[in-house]
Structure formats: C-alpha cells, structure tokens
From TrEMBL:
Transmembrane portions of the chain: 20-41, 61-83, 95-117, 137-154, 166-187, 193-216, 245-263, 269-293, 314-336, 359-382, 389-409, 415-434
Transport in keyword set: yes
Entries under Pfam families matching the protein: MatE
Name of this protein: MATE family efflux transporter
Principal cellular location given in the protein's record: membrane
Subcellular location: Cell membrane
Any one GO CC term of the record: plasma membrane
Gene Ontology MF, one: antiporter activity
Amino acid sequence: MKTAELDLLHDKMSTLFRGYAIPGIVASLSMCLYGIINGLILGRFVGPNALAAVNMASPIFNIISCIGILIAIGGNTLTAISLGEGNKEKANHYFNNAFYCLLAIAVVIFVSVVFFPELLARMVGANTVIFPMVVDYIQTFGIFVIPVIFNIFLGISLQSIGQPQLYMVGNMLMVVINIILDLIFVYVFKMGIFGAALASGISATIVFILFITKFVRKDSPLRIGKCKADFKAIGLMAYNGSSEAITQFSVGFSFMIFNWILISKFGEIGVSAFAVVQYISLIVTAVIMGISRGIGAITSVNYGAKQYSRIKELIAFAIKVVTSVGVVSTAMLLIFKSPLIAVFVKDNLDVILTSQEIITFYSFNFIFVGVNIVINVFYTAINNPRTSAILAILRYVLLIGGFFVLPLMMGNIGLWLSFVVAEIMCMVVSFIYYKKTTLKWR
C-alpha cells in the first residue's frame, strides 16, 4: 500500500500535527473501539459479569506487555533520532536490534499467558463467580499476544518513517474485522467471552501481517534483516523506554489494586460498574493518546536535527488541543452519562447507579490527564528517560495513595476523585520540569 511520506524536518508544524495527530487519533480510536465493541457485545449478549471478567484480565496484559513496550518505545526513539541525524545505517541497526529483542520477549510472554492463565487470574483477584471467564479470556487472547505487541512496535516505526497514514488504515481495518468476527462468534455462535477474545486476536494478527510487509521491502527506510547483536544498544533502548514501561506497568498495577478495592467493597457489581465507565472513557483517552503518540516521532526526529524551536511550538499546540478535548469530554460525559451507560447495561439497576456515581466525579480527570501524557511523551522522545520515569512513577504513586487516603476523608466520592487529584498534582510537577528543560534550549 503506497502512502505519502511527510517531511518531519521541513514541513510546517501545523501540517505535521494534522498529518500525525489525525491518523494517531483515528488509530487510537480504532484501538479503543476494539475494546468498546467487545464490551458492548459482551454486556448485551453475555452479561455484566463478562464485562467484569475482561476488566479483571486487562491489568495482566498491561503489566506483562510493559517489557515489550520498553523495547518498542525505546528502540523507536533511538531509531527516529538517528533518522533525524541523517544516519540510516545507524537507524536500521537500532531497528533490527529492537525487532529481534522484542521477538524473544514476546515469546516468553506468550508462554506465560497461554500456559499459566489460572495463576494470573488468581493474581488479579478474580472471585469464584467470574474466575472461569477471566481464565478463558487470558488464555485465548494470550495466544495472539505476539502480533498484538508487534503492532505497537511496527506502528510506531511507521510514524518514524513518515507514514502515519498506514498505521491509521491498519487500525481501522482491525476494527472492521473485529466487529464482523465479534458478531459471528458471540452473537451468532454464542461463544461468549472466548469468542470475543478470539475475534480480537484474529483481527490483530491480520493487521500485523499488513504492517510487517512494509518492513521487508527493499525500498523501506527501515528494513527487517540481519544485524549484529548490540547489547549496549538494547540497554539504551531499555533505559529510554523505561518510563513508558513504568507507565504501562503502573496502569496495570494501579487498576489491579483498584479492582481489589472494588470487589472487596462492592463485589462484582463494583467491578462491572467501573468496567462500564472505562469503556465509555476509552474514547476520550484514545483521542488524547492519539495526539500524544503522534507527536513522539516528530519530536524525536527534530531533536536529532537540533530543531528545538519547532519542538516547543509543537508541544505548546498539543497541550492546548488535549486540554480543550478534556474540557469538552468532561462536559459531554456529565450531560449524557445515563444514555451512555444504557448502551452497555440495560437491566441491572445496581450497576447503572454505581456507574453514574463514578462518572460524576471520575470524568473531571480528563481535563488534566492530557498535559501529563504529552509532557511524558516529550521526555521519552528527546531521550530523557530519567525525567519521564520520575513523572510516570509520581503519577501512579499519587493515584494509589489516593485510593487509600481520600476515601477516609470523603467516603466513596474520595475513591472516584483519586484519579482527578493525582492528575492535578502531577500536572503541576510536569510543568515545572518542562519549563526547566526548554529554558536550556535558548
């Protein structure tokens, strides 16, 4: 598939932002629809317990994939900076070391999820009601964990060579295939949570095949081929990608703790209610993540070329956009929370009421989360993993602390507001770091 390449060093920043942000948003929305469609179909045709099971299983994939993301993000940052320096040989050296290292990691992850699903289900705290569903989802989706992980790596690599459109097309294709297979497996053949996991895995595998064909072509700036193992380079990748890995691990770990709290206080009703909120919130998060991930490659290439003024222009614009998206999204969630919840749950009053309460407070989180994500991506993109890691750790330490402290002062409302308070506090620190960094570029 032939797509136009963008010039990351010379095109206007407004053109690059549109060229990367729009495909990034569409790709992220496609990935979130990937989850929402599963949730909608499972909630409607299997039941709220199926939603709870997927929500319980999700932290497992966040945590075990963090090592893969460590190499995927770190490797592509070094690759993109090398491309910005005009050194394609060095860029391919980093790319191929990252590819083969990631392949080895993905195999280990595959073995873990396919052969030990019961152990993992116990780790996330699944109770006897949803335990079989959690095991079924982990094991089935785990079969496809290799293409799922590589889609992240290859998608970011497509952005580094100026082809974000292909990443967007691939993710849109994945959603279409997933919808069709979901309806066939879950609705027609009544395969339940197994069918939903199977549909997701097959669609991800088809897109993996589409992506990888781009990197075996002779005319590709980055091409899969033989390379000399460079453990120093792999170490640099791991170091640079550490903040993203910490973020991914922290997301899984914090939500695992949150699920433990929910299931102990509210039972599966609480987990089901929060799952509904998460499905609704996926759309907002996808837009913000699409914008943020889209600017990563632009920042890295321009940093390699020492075009600092272009980077500051890009980040300032991105922060304005994600904040505006957050304000509008919060307002929309507060106004339309009841009909949105009704899409997923139709006849369970306890789940509906709990979901409404969570959204009332949790939705304010989106006003602030975008700034933290943009600045974190910025530090990873300029090869400053130390600062990125500090901000990532701080964000989730504050969040987990809030889970235990705020409910003592405010009851259940404090639990839902933990997300908002953590984002506000981290945003203040993130701005301080960002200002100090950019002042040195004068």
